[in-house]
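We modelled the chain as a single entity of 733 amino acids. Its sequence is:
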Amino acid sequence: MKKTNFRSGSALITVLVLTGTSLIVLGGVLGYVSQATRMTSYYESKSICRLAAQSEIEVAKAAINRQFQFSLNRAARIVGGDAMGVTSVSSYDWFDAYDGSTGTKRTIGKVVGTRDATLTLAETVTNNGCIVKVRIGRVEHTVGDQWANVTLVAEATRSGRGGATCKSVIEETIRFAQQRSQVFNNAYFVNNFGWFEGGDSTFVNGDIRSNGDMKLDNKVTVNGHIYAARNDTLGANGVPGIIYGDSGTTVGNMHELTKYKSSSTDYGTSNRARPLELDPITGGINKGGYSAPENANTSAKSSRLHPNQEFSVEMPYIGDLSSNDSDYRAWAQELHDADPNMSTIKKGGQTLVSVYYDGVGPSGERYYYDSNGNQVQAPDYGAIVLVGTAAQPIEINGPVIIPNDVIIKGYVKGQGTIYSGRNIHIVGDIIYKNPPQWNNRSTSGTDNKNKDLLGLMAKGNIVLGDYSQDGWESSMERTMTTSTYVPAYDCDTSDAAIGYPQRFNDTTSSSRLHYQSVEKVDSSYFAQCQSAGLADFVPGGRDSSTGQFGKDRGETERVKVGSHKEPKTESVLGWYVGKNGKNKYGWHDETVYHDVDDFEDRPKTSYDRKYYESVCNDDIIRSLSEYKTVRLYDKRYGWYTSTQPKIDQIDAVLYNNHTICGRIGDCSFNGALVCRNEAITYSTKLYLNWDIRLYSGSNETVDNDKVGLAKSSDNPPQVIDWRELPEGIVTFD
């Protein structure tokens, strides 16, 4: 009986133990599940926080870049640009307002001009259920560097399931830098007013763009997009097509795929036409190529029109080139120091320019004289004439600076950019010795990336042909003077050194100046520019009494250069030795020596220069210019002959602060034509072939440090560093 009782008690204990064990296991499982659930919720919230923090960093990044661009657009400043009244001339002054001495900040940027260009980030924002704070951790910029690094720190906090709080802290360093401007992505870019009224004699292979209205007629062929931008400063609505209140739609002409691939007559130098987006040989993508439609119908033509663009494309000003503090000179010198072959112009093995040209112009003189006989700097000092031949081309390598006018024509070899401190006068064909080519509209089998590429960047104007020719000025009067084609605009203050006032072509001003005026800057404004270091070198010189600028007109000034003694026989009263050898007193002839002044006719500076004229004597332009006789037809008078400029090919990227103007022949521009205003007339045909190597996304893009074209800020910011920080390192309160 006892044995039986023992067995019953043992079973109960066993059941209890097993039950307890089961409860323990179940509790563990439930605990594990609960912990796993909490961890899942935590990591889910962590991922959401991380995404929210990164999203707000992207928002802040875009806002900073936009405000940086705003400061540049409104103040017309780039690297080497001007900032009146401050010691530094860097565009990156905008970032210097940040002060990191007291920890993280919400505000960055400084007031530029009369506009508040600062940016203040929000205290907090809500993103995907997270409370996010974004602060500026630090700003790094060294004077002279062409970039600024901004570190953004974002904290995102979120309550997960079960009430657990999750937090993520992201730090990202972004570089804001000026890279090759996007204006070079167009065959034709004009800042103020674009016009294509050439009918079926005008062909463009590339995009055309205006930071204002774009006038177009339906016969012009444009194989690319057509952009116009609303511009409140100029009073432009951003219309691509008919303006002046006309009715109807203007879409222009374009070539469909089959015609574009086969045509060899509608492109000037036909093997230079823009390649196709879809390479017809390799089948690959040519970024920036022409997306030709299968059928160039009205719908296809209309779809490439882009009216009323919300944002204009920044066209940077070329700033100070000549002072020792010029960022352009520092940039060119840095490239030259790293490689002595960089930033040079050579011809026939002789180095003509190394970084900066500091020499006499075509007159060969260092000094001229003013109307009062005072010695002054020769108007063409610092100017240069460049003429290349097939046997001895102009060899360019990197950016070089000519502080005065450049007169150029002929064959060119290499890759580089000539910066002119005033005007560039193109007096004949400019032809690459080793040109790129896109035969069959394809990049297959070419080495275009290493072929010749010339940039011509003028702080003043680019003038085509012989402006001294009869009818040159009158043929462009409308497009060089009227407020429609040249809306009033603010000039870069450093351009006071080349005759530009604060506001140009202001029709409301009693002292209005336009492109056919005599250059003039009043004394008070010029003094401000000098005190700010923006007029250290004045091409041609300036007459302070009139405010006008100098030119060589081949005149001379009679200048005293010394004196000498000359004998003269005079009758004098006094003692003299008579014929008998005795002293006598009375009138007698005697040789007397007098001081006589010596004069020379020295070259004279004339202070009456117009904007489109060169500082050099017109005979230089005239002797280098070429002409041809063409046979033309007029409905009223029939056939007749005319003498026209012989400029039939310009292989270059053209850019200037003000205007491109002049008369040319049946001309092909192979590169890009970028200007603030444009006034070009041509005889019968005009071709614009965009150079795809200027496009930042192209497989054949030429590095900008190699060629040295103008930079701007309209490029995406670049991420330098990224990391996730442990909680507590950064205090956001």
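As a brief sanity check on the tokenised model: The helical segments are 2-75, 257-262, 298-303, 327-338, 477-481, 523-531, 618-624, 704-707. The longest strand covers residues 551-577.
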